[in-house]
Design a protein that fits this description.
By secondary structure, the chain is α/β, with parallel strands linked by helices. 40% of the residues lie in helices and 26% in strands. It has a six-stranded mixed beta sheet, with helices on both faces. Strands 7-8 form a two-stranded antiparallel sheet. A hairpin with a 2-residue loop joins strand 7 and strand 8. The radius of gyration is 15 Å and the shape is globular. It starts with 6 loop residues before the first strand and ends with a helix. The relative contact order is 0.17.
Amino acid sequence: MLQQFDQIRIRLMGLGGHGIVFAGRLLGMAAAMGGLDSILTITYSPEQRGGWSRADLIIAKEMVDYPLIDEADIFLATTQQAFNLEFKSLRRGGIFIYENTIYKPSITNTSDYVIIPVPATEIAENVTGRRLTMNVVLVGVITAILDPLLKEDHIINAIKNVTRRAGKLDTSIQEMNIKAFQAGLDYGRKYLQRLR
């Protein structure tokens, strides 16, 4: 869908605790494993509890020379607040992904965007029994969109490298996240097939 590119700008945003930063780290690491340059910029709201977090990721064939995103090619929002704050940053023709078991955004000019609703919380619960893995389900959807730029194996390797509990690599959490990722990848591939 976005195969012809010099840079892809991805903005992920949601409630603190939705695993937004972890999702950004997985995508950036997988891009680097594939020989692409990637840069991740993280921002948090000023509230100590109940605030939002944002991960801006730029993936490029050449070295990224400017780390900030003015206009996103892909925007993922897991809450209404995230949508309200940052939907305006999505370029016309860009891809909007939202967690549709949490909220349903109201968008005018829907034909200006590719809109992908994902029941990520529901998928996560069905596949892993844990709602918290919904962020990795969403990573799977983004990987389907960026295929063949991002490879399934690279995301799985990234999960294995960064999934820790108490500072140690944890194989049970790795396996759970890999299941969630693969379920999201499968959902994304099927959804994109319907769009073609």
